[in-house]
């Protein structure tokens, strides 16, 4: 039986009417007609009184509680009718309220946990960005103050310190530009300029661009493709190039002399998978789930010597998300790392038709 005002009132009215008629039947002077009249009066009055109390006091207040919980959860006052129907159709309105409160409490616990997580990230971000900004600023300040203290008169020292100050300011500029790029992408202020192009040509352009950096560390960089056929994708050429440059440069930067970095393209079904694989220092398992966070560094003592803004992988992640794909990592410390992501493949016929 459903627990609502009408069913509960009917049940109580039948009980009261039955008890009243039973007592009246025990009185010798009361006729059958009197018993029936007593039954009808007792049933009607008890039904109306009970229905009024339950419907307009108890169930109405329960409905208000449901409505308020719904409004708190969804911030939509239109849920009033739905909540009333929920109360009236519920087998046990009290259980319904308990369920609503439990769900609401769980939702709030999740929100609180998320807020605590965001607060932790905010504190880490402020600490990291303060540290990253402080390093080039203090370095530049030190060089300039040294020159002001009299070193400016020594041409050799002056030129050397000015070059170092310029280098620190350049690092600061790169950091600010990368930070602005991440912020704009996250805010949706940077749109992707999609076009169809052969991804192999873009990768060759990247490898030529990093060739000098690789030669300085005696790192071999190479491209591995399934065949000589063009591989067309629809993407933002410059942004995707930025992603590949970041991944390849990281492979060079965090590698030992004589190592290698291999860019691999694999075509399967309607996708092309781009992998950047190296045999460098690798990334420990405990750091892999945070490696794409802003300013996160695996080993600050080692990576700090390599330079960089600490935002490269975060930028890669956001750019690829704008391409409706995600970057994955497979790595083992002291063995190497493989970064990979998928892009939709554009068939040759589709590209030719679009050009025509």
Automatic annotation (TrEMBL):
GO terms for cellular component: plasma membrane. InterPro entries: BphY/WalK/GraS-like, HATPase_C_sf, HATPase_dom, His_kinase_dom, HisK_dim/P_dom, HisK_dim/P_sf, Sig_transdc_His_kin-like_C. Residues 128-347 form the Histidine kinase domain. GO terms for molecular function: phosphoprotein phosphatase activity; phosphorelay sensor kinase activity. The keyword Transmembrane applies. The chain crosses the membrane at residues 34-59. Gene3D superfamilies: 1.10.287.130, Histidine kinase-like ATPase, C-terminal domain. The keyword Acyltransferase does not apply. SUPFAM superfamilies: ATPase domain of HSP90 chaperone/DNA topoisomerase II/histidine kinase, Homodimeric domain of signal transducing histidine kinase. It catalyses: ATP + protein L-histidine = ADP + protein N-phospho-L-histidine. It is an enzyme of class 2 (transferase). Its EC number is 2.7.13.3. Keywords: Kinase, Membrane, Phosphoprotein, Transferase, Transmembrane, Transmembrane helix, Two-component regulatory system. It holds the Pfam family HATPase_c. GO terms for biological process: cellular response to phosphate starvation. This is histidine kinase. It comes from Flammeovirga pectinis.
